[in-house]
Amino acid sequence: MKRQSHKMTVTVDEHTSHLERLIPFFRELDAKGTTIETLPRPAIEAYQLEAINLTLAHVWENNAYYRARLEEAGFREPRIDSLEQLASVPLLTKDVIRGDKSKLLCVDPKHIGQEHLTSGTSGKPIYACYTLADQYVYDLLPKYLRIFDESDEDVTAVALPYEFALPGLGFQRLFQFAFGAAVLSMGKGGYMAPIDKQLELMKEFQATVLATTPSYAALLAEESEKYGFKPGEDIRLRTIWLTGEGCSSMFRERLERWWNCRANFFYGSTECGVVGVECKEHRGYHVMEGHVKVEIVDPKTGAPLPRGRTGEIVVTTLLREGMPMIRYRSGDLGFLQPGPCPCGMTMDVLHLRGRMEHMIRVGGEEFSPFLVEHFLMEIPDVGMWYRFIVRDDKLTIEAEPFRTKLDDAKLAKKIRSHMRDRLGMDVGVVIRRDIPRTFGKATRVIQ
Ligand SMILES: [Zn+2]
Description:
- This protein has eleven helices and 19 strands.
- The chain is α/β, with parallel strands linked by helices.
- Strands 4-3-5-6-7-8-9-13-12-11-10 form an eleven-stranded mixed sheet, sandwiched between helices.
- It binds zinc ion.
- Residues 279, 281, 286, 341, 343, 345 line the site of zinc ion.
């Protein structure tokens, strides 16, 4: 099989950037036939320190907000001497940039090639403006040939939103320009691509890769049976990239069984792009250390936490001209573990614990929705659409039956007893058959 081509068909003529100084680092890795994935830690960290200093100098020169914040924090020049000193750079919160399209802009607007925005489910949207070079040169500069084995032999179905948000177009660029794969731009719920047509085209073109959300991968499997396609036979995927929503490893395992292929998690955001990607070992996300520096901070005080401690994930982008994100508080919880992973990669491993506002708080305790989902998905009689409803300090699980001979009362009893064993608390159970499917992000926790 051919290796990835990492074709870069776009050159940005007469374009200069603070990031140019990083190109030789990646060229040298190419020449040695290696990637950042397996470099010794000091080499990765030296690259990151240089990239952060270039970014600090870029925002100091070109952005009033960033400069004011750095000066307030006592910076006389835009420079840190070690990665530990990154902690002295002020954190960036969503509130500051929500609804403001130019606060973090660091280039003349005429250089912007793509405006992205977040879905704004929790208020006004956050804008992320990318220059052409951000999208077509720098974003594709670091290669991760161990993590991705896609090539020009693959046909990739991208079932992620294309409208405004980054995921659809971001995956499209990665698969086309980095790997040379063919792309089926399916989107999610657009009028040109109803589900039956999406499935038909995946079969027609023999899609080998699917990039989508966990809930949509479940919906596609469910609908394919309704339309008479057999997942794993009529559509023979090799890999599913799951992104956009987190899910538990048990939910993933059920998708893998249903589609008869491997499913890996991909963690990123519209603001920061790719942050972490799982290798085949499925032991957490490898931080994409060519693209981002990840820190974990105490969500209350903002103080950096050591490896192994769970806190808020803070991301600094390393390869952005248009709108670099510096110490951006993601609102997601997780912890870092040092490499190397059994796969041989030396990049840090990130473990996600879900979004802070989605934590289930019952009886004075806090449960990650992924953990509760994991336990629920251990019951084979339960389907993949469910809801956790938290009312009056009590958790009620709404669940659907799945290929089971149990009647509703017996199924509810089974769920109650299993969850009592696993969670150590009593839950209410309601069996339904009408939990709403969605083309958007699945809302699983209601409180
Ligand atoms: Zn690994």
